[in-house]
Structure formats: C-alpha cells, structure tokens
Amino acid sequence: MRSTMVCLLFPVGILLVFLSFCLSTTSAAIVETSFHAKNLTTSRLCQNHVIVAVNGSLPGPTLRVQEGDTLIVHVFNESPYNLTIHWHGVFQMRSQWADGPEFITQCPIRPGNSYTYRFNLTGQVGTLWWHAHTQWIRATVYGALVIRPRDGQKYPFVKPYREQTILLGEWWNGNVIDVENAALATGVAPNNSDAYTINGWPGDLYPSCPSNKTYTLQVVPGKTYLLRLINAALNGQLFFKIANHNLTVVGADAAYTNPFQTDVVVMGPGQTTDVLLTANQSPGLYYMAARPYLSAIAVTINNSTTTAILAYENATQTTPVLPVLPALNDTPTAFRFESNMTALVTSPFWSPVPQTVDESMYVTMGLGISECGNNQTCGGIFGQRMAASMNNQSFVLPSTISMLEAFYRNVSGIYTTDFPDQPPIVFDYTNTTLSFNQALMTTPKSTSVKQLKFNSTVQLVFQNTALVGIENHPMHLHGMNFYILAQGFGNYDPINDPRKFNLVNPLERNTIGVPTGGWAAIRFRANNPGAWFIHCHLDVHMPWGLGTVFLVENGGTPESTLPPPPADFPRC
After folding, report:
1. Of the candidates 148, 1, 147, which has an alpha carbon nearest to the alpha carbon of residue 88?
2. 499: CB partners within 8 A, 6+ apart
3. What is the pLDDT of residues 536-560, one digit of tens each?
4. Integer Cα distance of 510 and 525 in angstroms
C-alpha cells in the first residue's frame, strides 16, 4: 500500500518557507505491507518438500518503492523456526534496529511472534533485495527490493520498455535447516544443493525431472528491457548469459555504473547487477542460463545449469538456443567482469572518495579448523571442525542479547573490541604448499570486533589465503557502501599496489568477490552509528566464523546518534 505525502500550495508569503520541504518530500510515500512466513508444500525436481516461504511464494514478493519512500513491513513468523529479515544493501540510517542479522542487530522473531521493520530509502536507486538472516532459511525466504527514481527524476540511461527482476537461487531436496545442522554437528562441509533456480524454477535441463516448470520472459522485438539480476543462492557464485544477446551493465548493488557491454555477468551470493537487454535478434526462443563459477580447487559442487526462456513475440521455434557458458573455473572472465565496472560520478548520489585514511586494516581471510571438543567426534580435516576466520579470529555470534543492544546499553561481556588490524602471523598467504599447515590452519573462536569513531575513513585490504584452498569470497558489509579501489592476485604489495588504486571513479557497492588467491582494497566512511556485520556471503562459511562486526560510535548530533530500540523489538 502506497500513501503519498502531499505538499499544499500556500500564499506567497508562506510558500517560500515551505519550498525546500516541498521539494524534499515530493513523491515521498509510506509503503506498508505484511510478510507471513510459514510452511509451504511445494514441488521442485519432481519431489514435494515443505519449505518456509513468505506469503506462499518462492521467491517471496517483490517490494517496489521510490527513492525517498519509507517502507514498513510487518513480519509474522508462523514458521517453526526463528526468523529475521535483512534488507540487503539498505543503509538503515536512523533505523539501525531494522537491519536484521540474528544476534547482531536483533534477537530472532520466535515462532508465533512478529516484528515490524521501518526504514527510509533515501539516497539509493536500483536493485537491492531482502532475505532471512537466520541459519539457512534464506534458501527459500528471499525476494527483490526495487527502488525507482522519485517523481521528476530519470534513469541515467535509455528509458526501458519494461523492467523484470531475475532472481538466481539454489534448491535442496531436503530441509535446509537439517542439512546445515547435520554438518555443524560433526564439523564437516554440508551437502551440496541439488539445483539452481531462476525465479524459483530449475528449468528444463535437469534430467531427473524433465517436466520442471521453466520461467519465461516474453519480449517484443526491438524493445529494450531493464533486467534486475540478483544472486540469492546460498553458496553458488554464478555465471549468467542469454544466448546470442549482449547486455549493458548500468548498475550494481543499487549504485549506477558507467555503462559497459558484456555477454556474461558474474555474481557472488548477495550481489545485484542491473543490465539493459535489447531484443535485437531474430524472433525465437533463447535460453537464459546460469551455472557456477568454481574458484576453489579439488572441491565437489553442484555443477548443474539452471535455465529460463527469453521468448520473442510470435516466435515459432520450439527448442530454445542454449548459450555457451564459461568454464566452471574461468577465473579470468570473472575477474575481468568485476574489475571492468566503474562508478557513474554524475549520479546524484555519488560522493567523491575520501582521500585521507583514519583506520588502515590488512585482513587475511579464509578457511581453517577449530578444536573438535572433548568427547566429540568430528569429520573435518585432521579430525577437527571446519572453521573460517579473519585475521585468525573465527567469529562466534552471541546468544543472550544482540550486539547492537549490548552496544546501546553498554552491556559488558558480550564482545571484545580487540579485533586486530593486522594478521597475527605473517606468512606467504597465497602459497598453496602451506594449505594444510596445521599450525596455520588452527583458529581460535571469539566474538572480537572493531570499534570505529563516527565519520572515520577506513581502508581495508582483504587478503585471501590458501589455507585449505584458494577461493573467491563474496564479502558483504552491512549499513554502508564501500569503494572498490583495486583488486589483484597473489599477496598484496603495500608499496606498489596502492599505485593501482582508482580514487576517481571506483565502483561503489556493498558486496565484493575477493579474487581467488588474491586481494581487494576497499575504502568507506563510517558515517552510520551502530553494529554492522561484515561477513562472507557464502552461507557455508558464515557459521564457520568468516566475519566480524564494525561498531561505529555516535557522532555529536541527534542525526548521528543511535536511536533507542522500537517498542516491539524482539527479546532473547
């Protein structure tokens, strides 16, 4: 439901007083809706399964708003599991309690309870999304969040004839909570998914179930369409192509980019990409297809291909054309796509890159092991539990209070503020001969975080390691965007690599795929007080500990001070 705020015309003497208010609120609205999360019996791959879904659909409902709107979502948890909803990429200025990650900004919504998320969407236009942020429920609890320009403003590219969201997902023939819990119980990697999906459907290339439904997008010859691509898969980094068609990238993570043409898009879980598609081929049927980008070595994955159909109006053929997708391990293509994107600095929301740095961090990241525990049997490497870490700190969520509430109420004993700015041990990080060095692999568990002064500028270099194996990690920062200054392979060189930094028009986004066996340098301004999770968006790695939290202190004004929690805030 959309209710618009209206500016009335007043006599001339009063009109000038209200002019700026009218300009700032023109088209701003309150958009209010409800999410009912409950069990749903549905069929995929010719099997019936019970999943948790929002409002009876997979994917869940697409939320459409305009920049400047306030969104109110009443979430009713009618499922048998704890639940939170994260609004992926939303800044949550003055609404930090609505961010959603379990035990970071809130305690979960218990079964039979509800919570209302309220937040404003100012300063962002493009494609974001929402998803559950409790265990693996986001495998089926997710949907698109589309933010269009407010009235009177336009896209900085040709007006599309139509828009369509394309959500890439992942499907298990089983209860995803059981899959995750079984793996965590013995410290091993979880079972792989059984299929990938496009808008909820695997497509018709799965031989075990040739009667699968397939999503179809009807197009008119000669028209241009805006496709909003979202990778909502749990653990699959994906290549995406449309047979015989080029795409023009115009946005990523709700930030405008300089347009560039490509025939393939690469996205890690959590990332979004806006592309223009012109229906300029012979009228017919063309597959849209996605399959994994496998950056790790000697790892077994679900390497299947999901498809949808691009159908031209009045097409007569019956068999769609299939695109030639990159090889599973085509790292050069993945790197070329990521590094080709730059920001559109003429965007009304662009801010120049901060030129001075207050906090400089060099953070190693990757897999490892942690102790199995007394009187337990574990199936990980060396008989231990599989783990993951940043600067050899394997992150553990609290369980009695959210970190944001502990921060707000100054509750001690929930976390420590000693997350290191540098790796505790210096070694040849990307040397694969050290992959199974048990001393380097072993990581302690902690709830160690980094505290930041309000409005400080942070430069962070992610350094992938070869421990257990090299791999691309999609790192997501809550509450703020960051600038991607540079990326490369091997170990970061603090003398020479800063010369490669793009300080003019670097891409701005909230999730970056740190190159396999390489590094990425980002910079951001900590201008949002609160507790902001930064973590790998491969959900297999998050419970293993690949994350930490930035605690941003209050500024000196009411606008830069963390507000109190809402009255219906969930309790632990």
Report:
1. 147
2. none
3. 999 999 999 999 999 999 999 999 9
4. 13
